Amino acid sequence: MRITRRRLLIASAASAAASILASRAFAAPPPLEQKETYKVGFAQTESNNPWRLAQTKSMQDEAAARGWQLVYTDAAGSAAKQVADVNSMIAQGVDLIFLAPREEKPLIPAIMAAKGAGIPVILLDRNVDQSLAKPGEDYITFIGSDFVEEGRRIAEYLVGMGGDKKTIIQLEGTTGSSPANDRKRGFEEFLADHSDYRVVASQSGDFARDRGRQVAETLLQAHPDANVIYAHNDEMAIGAIAALEAAGRTAGRDDCLVFSIDGGREAVQLVVDGKIEAVVECNPRFGPKAFDTALAYAAGEEIPPVIINPDQIYTPENAADLIDTAY
Q1: Is residue 262 part of a domain?
Q2: Overall domain count for the chain
Q3: Mean pLDDT by 10 residues, the chain (327 residues)
Q4: Does some domain include residue 325?
């Protein structure tokens, strides 16, 4: 019997809907059997900057130390590839998946697919849209930093400095990602009570150094009066410094303040050098906490929906003493 393309599409849609419904059939993530060792997946979003490389190394080192098999994938900045990576891990029969979702919404189908296959998921570093997938129901927990607080701390530091540097360019992270959304929100919510501070331009630099440089060059040309640059990560901050210098300007208190989030060694050294004013840490060393959480879940312990990593702030007063703590 001839099967039309329309019937195939209807059947495919019905199958997908059934899979989602099946994954919603129980209001808890799938269980994790207690075993001596595990085969776990780590779906990394990209490997194009020092923060991601440090996070990956931490996960690989921890797996090796515990004797666990780690199935590692790199989505190369593509949400679609990351969904395919998770589906591949499901097909390989991993016991659990650690997922660093590139964006909040596109990775929901991957989480639901894992749940439907009976594989629990722990989110690392970036969260997902919780109106579509819920911790303690669709995935175990989110482990990471408080991104809203990171942005708020930068704004609080800037306002606390006083002075006349109040015209701000903001270099946002990857559009649609939780750190970009939240670092912007925390920063702007704090400044809402300080109306003399103005964000005159805000654009995504995609957490990348060269893209941050390009965006900063364009925004500095459009707003030559800008005297503060707030970058959502170190890579874009370093790119912004290059843009300032190419424009004949200086990064630092004498001209344009630069602020960043992450806490890589290169950026912390720039705090020591006076080119970055302050960096709020976002610790990439997830391995120990991630694997400990998986074991606690297997043991039946109650896991909170959010596990926040403690982060410090590097300033001109402490950066030289704390640089050895930077990744």
Answers
A1: yes
A2: 2
A3: 37 40 64 97 95 97 98 97 98 98 94 98 95 97 97 98 97 95 98 98 97 98 98 98 98 98 98 98 96 98 95 97 96
A4: no
